[in-house]
C-alpha cells in the first residue's frame, strides 16, 4: 500500500508540474468594424476592433496559448500583428500581410494561434496592412507565471498607456 501511495503521489506531482508548465488557452474574438470616434471635437468613422478605440486589451500569462479569431466586417483587407511576440513554430500567426499570410478579406475570418514563450511585460498589437495600423491597435499584456516575482518591487497599480506619435 505504501508503495502504491508513493507512486500515486509521484504521478500527481508529475501531472501538476506538466499542467503548470503548459499554461491555459485564452480565446478572444476581434470583430473588425466601423465605428464613429470623437477626438478633440471631431467625429469620424474609423476601422476599429469591437467598436473600441484603442482596441481591446489582450491579457495572457507567460506559457499561455492565445486563440484570437479575427472577423472582418469592413471593406478593407485586414491582418493583425502581435508586436514583439516571438513566434516560435507559429510564423503563420505573425500577421504581416503578404509575408506570412494572405490578408483577411471582407466577410472572412482567421484564427491567430500562438503560445507566449519566454517573455513577459506589456507589448501591443496592431494592424499590419496599409495604413490601418493608424487606428487598429491595443495593448497585449503578458503576466508573470504564478509565484514568479517581479524583477522589481511589486507595483501598487498597473495602468496600460499607449503613446501614438
Ligand atoms: Cu509592430
UniProtKB/TrEMBL annotation:
Q: Record's CDD domains? A: CuRO_1_LCC_plant
Q: Where is the Plastocyanin-like domain?
A: 32-142
Q: Which SUPFAM superfamilies match?
A: Cupredoxins (SSF49503)
User: EC annotation?
Assistant: 1.10.3.2
Family annotation (InterPro entries): Cu-oxidase-like_N (IPR011707), Cu-oxidase_fam (IPR045087), Cupredoxin (IPR008972), CuRO_1_LCC (IPR034288)
Asked if the keyword Transcription belongs to this entry, the reply reads no
Signal sequence region: 1-23
Pfam families per UniProt = Cu-oxidase_3
The family this protein is said to belong to = Belongs to the multicopper oxidase family.
What's the protein called, per UniProt? Laccase
Which source organism?
Helianthus annuus
Amino acid at each position: 500500500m505504501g508503495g502504491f501511495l508513493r507512486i500515486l503521489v509521484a504521478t500527481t506531482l508529475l501531472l501538476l508540474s506538466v499542467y503548470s508548465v503548459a499554461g491555459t488557452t485564452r480565446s478572444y474574438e476581434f470583430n473588425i468594424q466601423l465605428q464613429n470616434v470623437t477626438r478633440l471635437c471631431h467625429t469620424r468613422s474609423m476601422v476599429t476592433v469591437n467598436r473600441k478605440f484603442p482596441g481591446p486589451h489582450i491579457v495572457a500569462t507567460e506559457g499561455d496559448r492565445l486563440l484570437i479569431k479575427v472577423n472582418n466586417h469592413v471593406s478593407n483587407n485586414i491582418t493583425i500583428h502581435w508586436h514583439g511576440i516571438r513566434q516560435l513554430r507559429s510564423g503563420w500567426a505573425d500577421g504581416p500581410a503578404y509575408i506570412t499570410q494572405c490578408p483577411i478579406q471582407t466577410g472572412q475570418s482567421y484564427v491567430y494561434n500562438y503560445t507566449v514563450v519566454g517573455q513577459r511585460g506589456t507589448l501591443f498589437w496592431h494592424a499590419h496592412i496599409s495604413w490601418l495600423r493608424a487606428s487598429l491597435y491595443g495593448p497585449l499584456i503578458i503576466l508573470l507565471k504564478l509565484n514568479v516575482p517581479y524583477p522589481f518591487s511589486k507595483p501598487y497599480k498597473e495602468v496600460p498607456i499607449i503613446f501614438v506619435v
